[in-house]
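anyone seen this seq b4? input:
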Amino acid sequence: MNLLEVKNLKKSFGDLEVLKNISLTVEEGEVVSILGPSGSGKSTFLRCISMLETIDGGSISYCGKTAVTEQEGKPVYVSKDELKEIKRYFGLVFQNFNLFPHYSVLKNITDAPIHVLKRNKDEVMKEAEVLLKKMGLSDKGNNYPYQLSGGQQQRVAIARALAMKPRMLFFDEPTSALDPELTAEILKVLKELAKERMTMLIVTHEIDFARSVSDQVIFMDGGVIVEQGAPKNVIDNPSNERTRAFLKKLEQ
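predicted toks r here
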């Protein structure tokens, strides 16, 4: 089943065309890694499909439900209530964690399921304890974000996203704010999630990681998908010169 379907997505900021006709399908249980140089449109793409930015053209649907379509060359979004429902299909993890500094770790994880999803508090608390254990943070529930390392904060952010029980997770460069040791911690968590067949779309510079966990890899440059396919094709045997040049640069 297709969890996400994007067709001909366009986005400009003023005269700058950032995304040009991007189309992508993500199936349930699939891990998709997006590679590309800075300014290639990767993060903007994530922001558009997670409704943090409005699009200028194209269509987006989740689990068969349309979020935005194009009519007479203009994007038309569904109602606020329908969008609210659709947004529950995915969770988003940012590169700079975005935790609430004045909330404890436990409150960061449980606040939205209790107040947004109106779920039973005891159930949510139990699930949060399980998530903390999964993230190797069982003893950190009462700590505040400033008392944690960057890697621990990012693991709390992942637990917070999972607490909403999304069908898929988006990661925007989840390790770019971390040093190599902490990066390894986060990649380990993502590998575990991949093993559990969590559907994920990951913008990353970690080539070895993308090679080992991805079902498909996308290389973006200049607002277009330059190359797309299995890791063994896109990473190990790219057919496009731009892809080859980018990968070579990363290896240096």
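Residues 103 and 175 are 23 Å apart (CA to CA). The chain has two domains: 2-89+167-251, 99-165. kinda curious what u guys think
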